[in-house]
Design brief:
single chain, 192 residues, mainly beta, 10-stranded mixed beta sheet, 5-stranded mixed beta sheet, 52% strand
Length: 192
């Protein structure tokens, strides 16, 4: 299934939400058709989005990249409630500004539970030039990608230049990659 949205959403002041329920034995691959542009509105208000998954089967959530344009101020939350055998793969690729443009502000959170027990709560905030350029932040890279997998496979920690794979305590893995462009980051996540 493909998600199609207006080129002007989310615009400052917008509050978008989507709930996806996948029953036992069912599988869903949810993709985007174009990049999402986070844009400021004329009022200066922040925008927000919430994507909520209730999964008993299997979900692959693979939206196109999100571009955090200058003056945007957006909060993105993904929540996932998994049953005992549910599987979830989701990818997020963030681009800090358009070509030659500084990034706006984005707070991106992922919260996942299995049968009510916490699996992961992760937050990434981008848009502060000093933090984004520092070694403790994004080391000046314009693109950050992550891929979260909750399944029964056992994987070891791994890593290389500008990427890492971390096994999660409750099962699954979190892969993260930094790069100067979307193509590089996507290729790294695909290879992992």
């Amino acid at each position: 299934m493909h998600l199609v949205s207006s080129v002007t959403a989310p615009l400052g002041g917008d509050s978008l939400s989507l709930t996806v329920e996948v029953g036992p034995g069912a599988s869903l691959e949810l993709r985007g058709v174009a990049a999402t542009l986070l844009l400021p509105g004329s009022s200066g208000a922040a925008s927000s989005s919430l994507v909520r998954f209730v999964v008993q089967g299997s979900v692959r959530y693979l939206p196109e990249p999100t571009v955090v344009t200058r003056r945007a101020n957006h909060t993105a939350v993904v929540e996932a409630e998994l049953d005992g055998h549910a599987e979830l793969l989701m990818r997020e690729v963030l681009v800090l500004g358009r070509v030659g443009e500084a990034s706006g502000i984005l707070s991106s959170s992922v919260r996942a539970t299995r049968c009510g027990a916490p699996l992961l709560h992760q937050q990434l905030v981008v848009g502060d030039p000093l933090v984004d350029s520092s070694a403790a932040g994004l080391a000046g890279k314009r693109v950050v990608g992550s891929e979260l997998v909750f399944d029964s496979a056992v994987r070891a920690a791994d890593g290389g230049e500008w990427w890492s794979v971390v096994p999660l305590a409750a099962g699954g893995t979190l892969a993260t990659a930094l790069g100067d462009d979307v193509v590089t980051v996507t290729r790294v996540l695909d290879a992992i």
